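Researcher: Please predict.
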Amino acid sequence: MTYSPTRRFLIAIGEILLITATSLSLPLWPTQPASATIASPGSLSSTSAPAGIIINSPWVVDASGTEWAYGTTSASMGTLISRNRTTGVFTSRAITAGDEGSIAGLYSPLTNVAVFSSHRTGLGNRITTFDLTTGTRISSRTLAADETLIRALAFNSAADSYIIGTNQNPAKIMKFDTSTGSMEYSSKLATGLKEITAFIADGNDLLAAVNTNPIKLVSVTRNKLIVGSVVALPAETPTLMDPVVVGNTAYLGTDATPGRITAIDIPTQTVIGSATLNTGEIGARNLVVDDSTGTLYATTDSPAGPRIASFRLTDLSRLGTTQLSAGLSATSLWLSGGTLGAGFAGTRGVETFTVAPEPNAPVITGIQESDSSLIVAWNSGGSVEPILEYTASATAGSSSASCSSNGTTCTIRDLNNGTTYSVSVVARSAAGVSQVTLTSGMPRTVPDAPTTPLVTRGNTAVTVTWTPRGDGGVPITGYRATASPSGKTCESTAETCTIFGLPNGIPQTIQVVAHNSVG
């Protein structure tokens, strides 16, 4: 057994010497379970556009995670921009004079090709395809002067051709060879069917959303652009844009005020659900879905600036809002793993957000109760995003102290021995802070050495008397006095005892120790 700091003194009986010793224990304590919740997107990083580049363009993300947009310079030089999502570094490549940024963009992982529809002042749009392996232009197609708002883009099943919908009256649907830009097929819709705002994938075919009153869906084959049925949607259906398809359901946004999300059953071409955004929220654009959590995200504008709104996919109920800093609107959203990217108009560039859930609560595995401190140990509860920091705190009434670590243990210091503290541990990631795990602990140590004792000599014996000092935070359970070199001892729960069997005339060193449950 290890004992308290001791008072040791020589009698013959003279000088007093001091000896100290310490011992610690590691009891285990139960935890209080807690669970994390899915958070609204939390900001991770922000990267401005390259100097001299304006990116009024949607972004597409290739299979490697590199982000691409088609912007312009102040001299109206169409410029292909890529961004390394790990380093945030932009690379720009001058492409075509007169292009003033993209209106729409689309990527195919089958061929690693992107197609962008770019605006040109006083002229028709230009459709340009790019090989994203090399970052070079493959082909371009200049459209007629009245084909100025090409927002609907699609690939055929092999992604060796792309399909566009025009804004004319009547609107046209055209198919071009990706490699050469040459037209393969063209179909004109019936009079009055104007401005195709989106294509919805319908197996090997497409549904063209037409901006008439009421909104209509027009079926068309991807192969030869054969136009089929025309279905009118309910009168309250707003302009449909930026579709995302999950199973047999298409979710579409709008540029109307207030914004609205519309869910359409693709086989029956009927509206099966909708969610109207808050008053003053303009549009609901750039829809993406996180399949792992069943959450739909969209951008909207408000008087305070752009926002990211989240919705439960099953019933389109509003889950939350992330208010972004004031500035130009978002032009796109994209999701990669647990990270949501947002591209913005102008020179604002790209901002990234986490859509991962908060970390699970850590599991406390032990409290080592030490002198004026608690050494807390825990296991990670798991997290999608990397854990940035753990914080352990000890609280007793209005008194508290804490420690932080990126490992699984830390020491909370400057505590009062003998006081029971509520001990908590939380984990923090980019997604937020976990729920709290709770237990308790009481700092403690061995007792302080008793005061210098009073020694009374007798025949072959000495009687030792002392006064206790600090108990180390837990009650003193007894004392022991030892005479050296004889090795004779006495023990007592009181503050005095007599050592017997000592040889007369031989100096003895007397050592007195107090002990408690620690030592």
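Model: Residues 239-355 form a domain with the Lipocalin fold (CATH 2.40.128.630).
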